[in-house]
Design a protein that fits this description.
The chain has six helices and seven strands, in the order ααααββαβββββα. The protein is α+β, with helices and mostly antiparallel strands. Strands 1, 2, 3, 4, 5, 6 and 7 form a seven-stranded mixed beta sheet that branches. The N terminus is likely disordered.
Length: about 220
């Protein structure tokens, strides 16, 4: 066999050997894109979550408006029938009627403590959703005018549990608290105590001066 024929056969063998490997190395179809790997339910789920958060924003707006207007009925309409409300002064109101009684005592009745209030509740982030339950937390800035004439601004923290009840989102639990070591009421009490102490010192000095003079003239 001539050299040229041998080279031709050798080249043909190399091509025959590599061709199957080269074919197998090629993808049978284009690689999947991000759009093609997305599950069909992803878009509806995202839309459902967006609708839920919109409903919760509307719920917050109604609660703030009812709270500031001292509208007990409107406020209770946003509460679950078995709501548990832990108040800033550490009371616990249970059920809608329990919340009504507390609200009337503090802000509506003849022996109310609060004359007027303006407050807003701001969440830290979107509500964490677990099916038909949501957990939200945040802060509030409130301006309180008390029946005693005192006006104070209080920044507080809150946590709310929200549930789907009869097709609508309701507040099932609400916990409200403020810093017991640093708050405007405590500061007022401290200033009052200092003032009372100063008055007591002045009175004691005055009494001591009077008694001292009496002893000297006796």
């Amino acid at each position: 066999m001539r050299l040229r024929d041998r080279l031709s056969l050798g080249l043909f063998g190399v091509v025959a050997t590599l061709t199957p490997a080269a074919v197998l190395a090629q993808p049978s179809s284009p690689p999947p894109t991000a759009a093609s790997t997305a599950t069909p339910a992803a878009a509806p789920a995202a839309a459902s979550a967006d609708a839920t958060h919109d409903a919760l924003r509307a719920l917050r707006k109604r609660i703030v408006e009812a709270f500031n207007a001292r509208n007990v009925d409107a406020l209770l309409a946003e509460a679950h029938p078995d709501i548990v409300f832990t108040t800033m002064n550490n009371d616990v109101a249970r059920g809608r009627e329990g919340v009504r009684a507390y609200f009337n005592k503090m802000m509506v009745g003849p022996d109310r403590v609060v004359e007027d209030i303006k407050i807003d509740f701001e969440p830290d982030a979107l509500t964490a959703l677990y099916g038909d339950t949501g957990i939200s937390a945040g802060s509030s800035d409130g301006h309180y005018k008390l029946t005693s004439g005192m006006e104070i601004d209080i920044r507080a923290r809150w946590t709310a549990t929200l549930v789907k009840h009869e097709g609508a989102w309701k507040v099932a639990a609400f916990h409200y608290s403020t810093n017991v070591f640093d708050n405007p009421i405590l500061h007022r009490l401290e200033r009052t105590a200092i003032l009372a102490g100063a008055v007591a010192v002045v009175l004691a000095l005055g009494l001591g001066f009077v008694l001292g003079r009496r002893r000297r003239t006796a």
